[in-house]
Specification:
Layout (H helix, E strand, L loop, with lengths): L10 E6 L2 E7 L6 H8 L2 H7 L5 H13 L3 E8 L2 E10 L16 E7 L10 H15 L4 E4 L7 H8 L2 E9 L2 E9 H6 L1 H7 L4
Protein name: Rhizobactin siderophore biosynthesis protein RhbD
InterPro entries: Acyl_CoA_acyltransferase, Acyltransferase_MbtK/IucB-like
Organism: Psychrobacter aestuarii
Length: 200
Amino acid sequence: MTTISRQLPDHFEVEAINRTFGIRAMRYPEDMRLLYKWMHAEHVVDQWQLHLPMPMLRAHFEKMLADDHQRLYIITCNDEAIGYTEIYEAARDRLALYYKAKPEDMGWHMLIGEPSAVGRGYLKPIGMMVSKFIFDNTPAQKIVVEPDSEIEIYRWVADSFAYFEQRLIEMPEKKASLYFCHREAFFESRGYLNYYGVAA
């Protein structure tokens, strides 16, 4: 079955804040040492809860890679790996239990794993890049995300490029803020115009 996720490109890059941000498809098992390091990093443990022994972490990612409703990517900055993102079809994800998802809705999860990249203002350009990647390469009219409601920085980032909070949802591991980002609003947002200069 050819899914929306399986048709996504393996690579994507944009220029922002005088750097080249990109994503590349996760390589298994080559990327496992990097992912193990990030999942055990102090700033990642509480949010992702994947600080597992390597055999268990490998089993987790094998299952994730076999799931055709999502694609897994490594985030890069100037060709250096700094993070990880999951891009998924919302209607075929557990998130569809919490809102009425349309077949073309897409979502993403993201972490900046490399400690040296934390606190450098990368969250906003990476979020912008992943959003642009989705809208450029899928029929999605809406992107959905559900970050932990206690993490305030997401509100600051989301507001600048048309991610609007809908409501709080009670998930097993967190109380999440459900955000929607619509295609037209994204390309007209001040964040998008500030980064890329002209509307798509």
